[in-house]
Amino acid sequence: MTRQNYFVLTPTQRTAAMVFNSEEVAIDPRGIDSVTPGSGINTNQDAVGFDVGDPVPLVGNFVAPVRIVNDPEYLSQAPDMVAYLLDIPSAAQEDRDDLPPGPAA
After folding, report:
1. Closest alpha carbon to 5 in 49, 34, 45, 36
2. How many other C-beta atoms lie within 10 A of the C-beta of residue 32?
3. Cα 54 to Cα 32: distance, rounded to the nearest angstrom
4. Does 7 fall in a domain?
5. Does the residue 97 lie in any domain?
6. Tens digit of pLDDT for each residue in 42-84?
7. What integer pLDDT is reported at residue 65 of this predicted model?
8. Is residue 94 domain-resident?
9. How distant is the alpha carbon of residue 76 from its chain centre?
10. With contact defined as beta carbons under 8 Å apart, do 9 and 62 qualify?
11. How many CB atoms lie within 10 A of CB 82?
C-alpha cells in the first residue's frame, strides 16, 4: 500500500463539497473503511479549526485526495469546490490497492 494525503471530511462537509459537482468534474469522497481508524495528523496549514499536527478524527468521516486542488481541470471547472476543500483538514493515509485511482495530479 502507498500513502497519500487526503482531505478528511465530515458527512456534512462531504455533502457540501458534492454540491459543486458538475458534468466536467466531480468528487465522491469515500467513507473511511477501517474498523478502528483512530486519528490522522492534520497536514493542512489552512484548515479551519485545526493547526498543523493536530489530530483529525477519522471515525465516521470521508476522504478525498488532496491532489484535487492542484488538478488543472478542477481549478478551471470547479474553483469554488477547490476553495471549499482548502479549508478542510488533511492527513496522510494508506491507499487501498483495490480502489480505482483518483483524478490525475
Report:
1. 45
2. 19
3. 19
4. yes
5. no
6. 999 999 999 999 999 998 999 999 999 999 999 999 999 999 9
7. 95
8. no
9. 19
10. yes
11. 18
Is residue 64 in some structural domain?
A: yes
In angstroms, rounded to a whole number, what is the distance separating the alpha carbons of residues 88 and 55? 13
pLDDT at 104: 43
**Residue bearing cell 457540501:** 16
Asked if residue 18 lies in contact with residue 27, where contact means CB atoms within 8 angstroms, the answer is: yes
Alpha helix (H) ranges present in the chain?
11-18, 72-77, 79-85
The tally of domains found in the chain comes to 1
Tell which residue, 104, 33, 27, 62, has the closest CA to residue 88.
62
pTM, 2 dp? 0.84
pLDDT top residue among 62 and 1:
62
pLDDT of residue 105: 37
Q: Residue for cell digits 495528523?
A: 41
Instruction: Determine what percent of the chain is predicted with pLDDT higher than 70.
Output: 85
Which triple of cell numbers denotes residue 49?
479549526
Which cell numbers hold the place of 39? Answer: 486519528
Grid coordinates in use for 102? 483518483
- Whole domain around residue 17: which residue ranges? 3-30+39-86
